[in-house]
Write a structure and sequence with these properties.
six-stranded antiparallel beta barrel; Elongation Factor Tu (Ef-tu), domain 3; 3 domains; 19 strands; mainly beta; 8% helix
Length: 252
């Protein structure tokens, strides 16, 4: 009995996403969905876990890191300005390939609404392949903003040369090593559109139907030479990543 406290249904705890993830991690052995576990056991499929719906695909991409050696390059963060899309580094060797992920010592990610720094370093990725020769300019994403409405990084002091880390937590792992990249995303991170195709005349059969927002056209025609009825199904489509910040790669 909770003497002096309001009924349990009236009590709330407000936490941020990092704290919520910690609670989920610490209590996952205590609280679980029996139906989801049964589904995994019976069907061999993951269901909904920690708010994510799990799907399987054999088309997940594989990323092979560049041949960078064990040298730890540095960057003078005092030279960073808002809107920078490149970093000038020194001491790097080997190659950096598109998709290589790295962090900069003492440069933290921030809450994009409150601008409060998180306890983890901001991740960056290479956008253009580069062969290092000691003093290099890396083309990176995301664009750097250390102040203002678009701020996405924090440093206690924007001075000094800081180590660039590729291997530690938050990086893409050892050089020349291949990793499968699983994808985590919100459904609104991407969009796909389809358009109605023209309906041909003078054929044996032609029809068009929209199914789940996808416009499908079916056309069948008699082939008098080969005595066949070839049939084709066509979709005219396009796709785009509209909110890249709502998706991430997960190295596995």
């Amino acid at each position: 009995m909770n003497q002096g406290l309001a009924p349990s249904g009236d009590r709330c705890i407000m936490v941020d996403s990092l704290a919520a993830n910690g609670v989920l991690t610490d209590t996952k052995a205590l609280f679980n969905s029996a139906s989801e576990i049964s589904r995994q056991y019976e069907q061999g499929l993951l269901g909904t876990i920690s708010g994510f719906k799990f799907y399987e695909s054999e088309m997940t991409p594989v990323h092979t890191n560049g041949s960078r050696d064990d040298t730890t390059p540095v960057v003078n963060i005092a030279t960073i300005a808002d809107g920078d899309k490149t970093l000038t580094t020194t001491g790097a060797d080997g190659t950096m390939v598109v998709g290589d992920v790295f962090t900069i010592a003492d440069v933290y990610a921030v809450n994009l609404e409150t601008k409060t720094p998180y306890p983890h370093l901001q991740q960056f990725a290479i956008r253009t392949a580069h062969t290092n020769d000691g003093t290099d300019v890396w083309d990176i994403t995301p664009t750097l903003y250390k102040s203002g409405a678009k701020q996405n990084v924090y440093a206690a002091a924007w001075t000094g040369s800081k180590a660039i880390v590729n291997v530690a937590a938050g990086g893409s792992g050892p050089a020349s090593t291949a990793y499968t990249n699983s994808l985590g995303f919100h459904k609104n991170a991407f969009t796909v559109v389809t358009a109605d195709l023209e309906m041909p005349q003078g054929v044996d059969f032609a029809s068009r139907k929209v199914i789940d927002g996808i416009s499908l056209r079916v056309v069948r025609q008699y082939d008098i030479v080969n005595d066949k009825f070839p049939c084709r199904i066509d979709v005219l489509f396009g796709y785009k990543t509209v909110r890249p910040e709502w998706a991430c790669r997960m190295c596995s």
